[in-house]
């Protein structure tokens, strides 16, 4: 009976193992489903719509080929179409009826007659989408490219070669399928255990059978038989010759199931072999980025305009700017710095480069700290130009100053440029602002909703530096913690005048700087305002005959003169950052930070 049970156990084990293995082989469902499309119109760009990316749940594995070089990037759908502008492109969308990807050639110029004027400027703008600040992530390869993303609704993918040659022709989008076999593991392991049980039962049955064949005790003796002659004794057989083969057979019989069980158990360790208590994925795409698609954030609700950039997107942009700036400051590369700076921030650095070229001992402009962003305040907009403010703060504030950057993007195909790079005051407290996922509205320069219109803040503060307490604007600005008044105010100007000889006279005036007035709203209904002011210092001869020599190396480097009887005019650029409270508030306007630098020195006509 034991042998019957052993045979049944072996048969059941074989069936369980075979069925478990079959679930992972011949009965295994596909691991993914995919749709393909072919671009044949020769367009320089192709766009995979969000409807095609989220046609099925799960991450999207995109494979692109059919060109010597392949470029793939993803971003907000509105940003992708804005970057393409009036150029033709192939639109790849999901057709729910046929369950396929359809390709349509789109000519934006045909539906936007007003784009003719923009096309006149198109040659000056880049045609290669690589490196654009609009993309959340970009990839490039030669021949073909495969990448896996996890993007939500509102995201599209742009595909190109180099922006001039036709876009890659072969596009495939694949989504994962749940082909797990939760009973494969239990069946395989259970079958292995059943085989082991059958083997044990077989050994027990074999042992019982051998015991039943032994001679019985107390057997009655029969009549004695006559003695027979002795027969020659056969050759002695060693015990090892009898027991050796039996031991090897026994060990083999034990080793086989052990190896079988070990192999089957190890093969069933994968998660897809076992039942899972995790909830099944829903039918909507997740907004959480995968490791290969970092930086994806869900768009803001439809009734609120999305912020100009996402935080991961801005981190990448600022990281590129910090790296470029460090290299340009080291090599005094004016062409390189001009690709990421504009306005007063560019003026100060270009002048500094010129001065340091003539005098290498002159201190460089304050470097941008390679530090985390402690504040991110993008403009809430879907148009251009776009403005973003961020603060870079190092852990070692004693040696690396905290910097506030105001970046501006003039058009979709232009990158963000630093318009203001302002060193914050040590005691500065930036007011509360909206989260980076929401953004802030841009306050008009002539707004009456704050205590002073943004366009008036710069001239009012410049008047305080010029006239001190005699300025009409003096009561509206907070003096405590304002180090700019100590360095650039009335007392400092008077010391410069006193240092001149009697044969020369010094005059101070001010004018609007080259930077645009930028004002972003704060949570207290106030505004953070960035402005630029030019302070002009004119030194002339009292009697018109005295010789004037530039008293500083920077002035000599920029003007190129060593002596003059006409006079010298120096222009200093001042970048200023303020917090302006709401209209009707009793709080004063607070200077959050400033940066000053000589940008021009010329001989008077």
UniProtKB/TrEMBL annotation:
Q: Where is this region: Disordered?
A: 106-127, 276-307
- Tell me where on the tree of life, at the top rank, the source sits: Bacteria
The family database entries (Pfam families) matched by this protein are listed as:
DUF8094
UniProtKB keywords: Membrane, Transmembrane, Transmembrane helix
Q: Which InterPro entries match?
A: DUF8094 (IPR058407)
Q: Specify residue ranges for compositional bias: Low complexity.
A: 107-124
Sequence ranges assigned to domain DUF8094 in this UniProt record: 306-598
Q: Which residues cross the membrane?
A: 183-207, 254-274
Task: Supply the name of the protein.
Answer: DUF8094 domain-containing protein
Organism of provenance? Cryobacterium arcticum
